[in-house]
Amino acid sequence: MPQTHAIYAHHGEDILSSVLQQFDVHDDHLFNITRTFLREMWDGLESYGHDMAMIPTFVRSTPDGSEKGTFLALDLGGHQSVFDSRVCEVNLHGDKTFSLRQQKYKVSDTLKTGEATTLFDYLADSVDAFLTDSGSPTCALPPSLARRDITEASDSEDVHGPYIPLGLTFSFPVEQTALDSGKLLTWTKGFSAKNAIGNDVVKLLQDAFDRKHMHVRCVALVNDTVGALLSRAYTSGGCILGAIFGTGTNGAYVEDVANISKLGRSEEVKEKGSMVVNTEWGGFNNSRSALPSTPYDNKVDRESINPGKQSFEKFISGMYLGEIARNVIVSLIDAAPKPLLFSGHSSKQLNKQWGVDTAVLSEVEEAWEGIGRFAPEDAGSTAGTGTNNGTDSSKQSSVQQKLERIRDVIVKRMELPPDSVSLDDADIIRKICTHVAWRAARLSSCAVAAVLSTKLVDEGKRIGVGVDGSLVEHYPYFEKKLRASLRVLVGEDVEHRVDIGLAKDGSGVGAALCALVAYRQNLAKQYHTVYEHEAANGLSHSHGPEKSACLDPLVRT
């Protein structure tokens, strides 16, 4: 098997073919990976401590697009680039549409490393400033979610009047024990606030709200993948799977509570119904017993900050695809006795870990396809179409133009001297990029297929899947490639009914929608408590089932 640093061979074409073949994943291998995926899903549902954690989120319902109301979201540590937090107000119109207003806030290094109470006071101040600048929502809740007079009969702490529900997207490792409770396991992303680890982050935030006498309640702790599911469910009328295919990867789906054995005899199990499960599928098959490892994947894993962990993520996510391709490229440069790329020339960019971003792979494929910034300005041009005379020279000219575009990308992004990059080199780079990305798409389909196989989807019915992330949104034909492999795994009829749609801003809109779900669940519990109280005391059931019917779970498939 070829090594990652250097290859010794006399026949360059044979070696190149051998390297690329390592990234081929045949159909029978796809089926085996999917079966292994299913086994690890069931293991994670049965007990705690598995790499694919299958975390119960305590989200018991999903929206269907008919909900109305105004809800808040606070996003800390999400994809904000320069900004580390933001506050969003989402107005649900009840017709699968919403309007969004948001404000981003910079979290200073002092706040990141100071006391946790100071950090959370700042977050509360951000919410307060947001509401003050715009005015608090004048009709935050629709009539169906109004508090009515049940406060009088409830021992809820909300005795001082209505509150504004807020969903918190907290993009750090937490151990979630309820929809509105989760203990911080560790800080990442440059945060290290003191006296936070081991504490409930929802309580830390709520205490900050209470110190400022704000009528805001943090009702939900949200994962951005769950947010993607909820966001797509609202805008499309139903969704059973939310998936992230971007810098990282993860999935959340709607599961029967009865199948979540590790919940034991909890109240959630007694209530039956469904619950959204956060799979944490980035950790699938950390043993690599099923995943198609190559020496290049092994090198990426060995040099990563978490060797032996997040194996599935390292095969398919945008953070790693560029590094896998770089390892292949360097091995071909170092091939002996004769280099197979760039006449043996390299560059600081190629020699540096993470020196080739996945965006470079995407740009190479765009250059070959003539899309994105490489799309021809004259759409009516016949160049390369063969419509004039169909000659081989016309086709060859088209291929040459494509390779010249790729060569320009290589020279610029890999910082190589122009005279060291031939068109043959450009073609080899294209093939490497295509194989690495194609494998990622095929492996991604296994995760989607495994989830679909757990659902008893009615024949002929739409199957909603919400996706987010840079790969699925920007990488050329990633979704098309994923669908082609999904068709193999689940059959043409099922694949045809899978409605894949972008679920943008799961950390913002999704968090606000989770606040809606949480508010409904809390209100339903209050109705149930009042109903039992009145029944036990022989009172009229003024808040009986007919009043709470609107609060039933909204899962739609």
Describe the structure.
Helix content is 43%, strand content 14%. The protein is an alpha/beta fold and 557 residues long. A hairpin with a 2-residue loop joins strand 6 and strand 7 (181-184). The longest helix has 32 residues, at 423-454.
Overview in brief:
The chain is of the alpha/beta class and 557 residues long. It is built from 19 helices and 13 strands. The chain has a 6-stranded mixed β-sheet with strand order 1-11-10-9-12-13, sandwiched between helices. Strands 4-3-2-5-8 form a 5-stranded mixed β-sheet, with helices on both faces.
Keywords:
six-stranded mixed β-sheet; disordered C terminus; alpha/beta; 557 residues; 14% strand; globular; 19 helices; single chain
Number of strands: 13
- What summary fits the major beta sheet? 6 strands, mixed
**Counting H and I runs of at least 4 residues, what is the number of helices?**
19
Rg estimate, integer Å: 26 Å
Q: If strands are numbered along the chain, what order do they take across the biggest sheet?
A: 1-11-10-9-12-13
Sheet/helix structural class? alpha/beta
Beta fraction: 5-15%
Average of per-residue pLDDT values: 85
Rough outline: globular
Helix content: 40-55%
Outline the secondary-structure elements.
Blueprint: H1 12-21, H2 27-46, E1 55-56, E2 68-76, E3 85-93, E4 98-105, H3 109-113, H4 116-134, E5 164-170, E6 174-178, E7 181-184, H5 201-211, E8 216-222, H6 224-236, E9 241-245, E10 249-256, H7 267-271, E11 274-278, H8 295-302, H9 311-316, H10 318-333, H11 348-351, H12 358-369, H13 392-413, H14 423-454, E12 463-468, H15 470-474, H16 478-490, H17 492-497, E13 498-502, H18 509-536, H19 545-548
Parallel strand pairs: 2-5, 5-8, 9-12, 12-13
Antiparallel strand pairs: 1-11, 2-3, 3-4, 6-7, 9-10, 10-11
Helix pairs in contact: 2-14, 4-5, 6-18, 8-10, 10-12, 10-14, 12-13, 12-14, 13-14, 14-16
